[in-house]
Design a protein that fits this description.
Blueprint (H helix, E strand, L loop, with lengths): L4 H19 L10 E2 L1 E11 L12 E3 L1 E11 L4 E15 L14 E22 L9 E20 L4 E3 L3 E15 L4 E12 L14 E12 L4 E2 L5 H41 L45 H13 L14 H14 L3 E6 L6 H21 L7 E5 L12 H7 L1 E6 L1
Parallel strand pairs: 1-12, 13-14
Antiparallel strand pairs: 2-4, 2-11, 3-5, 4-5, 5-6, 6-7, 7-8, 7-9, 9-10, 10-11, 13-15
Amino acid sequence: MKLNLLKCLPVALAGLFIGSAAQAQTSTSTMEPFRTWSIGVNAGVISPISPLGGQNDYSNWESSFGYGLYIKKQITPYFSLRLDGNRGSAKGDNNEPYNSGGVNVSPFKSFSTDLNYSGSLNAVVNMFNWSMFKQQNNAQLYGSVGGGFANYTTTTVSSGGATVENETVNRMIIPVGLGAKFRLADAINLDLGWTISFVDGDTFDGYARGGNDKYNYAYAGLEFALGKGKQLAFYSPTAATYDEALAAKNIANGLKSDLDAQKAENARLRSEMGDLLKDSDGDGVADKLDKCPGTPAGTVVDGSGCPLKVPAPQVTEKVIVTEADRKVVADAIKNLEFDLGKATIRSRSYPTLNRVAALLMEKNFSLKLAGHTDNTGSNELNMRLSKDRAESVKAYLVSQGANASRIEATGYGEDQPIATNKTAAGRQQNRRVEFTLY
């Protein structure tokens, strides 16, 4: 009875996606980054028969060259979807009798089928890795099943020598395969495989006698993993779970030991705490640190327990700012320039700023820097820019020797204009840093 692949394909595809959902239960969301996309190229031999047996229309089948490529998405360590494409040819003849002594079935002398292309979507299941308790393996076995289409043209030669090229046809196929993969490097694998493609038709070899044809493809190739990280296909969740459990056990044992040691240490500290905190004269300084024991009650003491000495009143020298001093500051304000929209001071401003730094060091003045902007841009941006520019001027003056503690830098943004913001000239006046000596 002829196998109806058209009816079997939906069942195979349903199994493919059910397997995908089941395998997806192994989550990789909390794991490190993995390589999940890969591409592969391969080459091998195509033969118009399967070692699994079945009806053969020709007594002698030949192996011909074939090649292919694929792109694969690894969804979990055990499951992936692979899009395959293949080309090649298949040949057979009746030049030799059947090994069983039977009569040749096909009336043709020979045939040659050009597999113009085949494309299929396959579910690939990694059956097991070599080591269950090694997180990154180097070898694995896998199986695959899927569905797709093949486009081929068959040419037959009759017993009389007449050659007939049949019409090019498209037929549905179900490829089933096994393979072994070996990791050669972080992103390169050796891929050895064998696929049997069951054809939904009986004319792949040019002769129809009521049964579906099939062809066999044995290949070797290279797979290149894309992206960064380890290959998800060679990752073992079992090994990762074992390592995590072992680490958790070690941490728990370490925590118990630490807890016992901490309890003993706490007991020792409590026994010593009473002596350390004893304060006989009640001045707030423990006896072991009190350099002046027996201080009368109510006496204000320093950190060593001795009476606090009241400092003599200090005379503050009056600061006098001259016109010459104001001119130095005015010149600095006039020549102060920044890069557009930044807090970087342009080098042409350095000479006048150097004179301000020298003035601060010479007369020990204090200086207030107030940054302002126009109303262009957001209020938050202007506030930050005005503050940054004032701080930039302060940093430069400090780098020239000025006392940082005597310089105050503040930003007011666009809140204190000295001219209208409706004209370019007014906005230019509002973009400024004010210097105040005191």
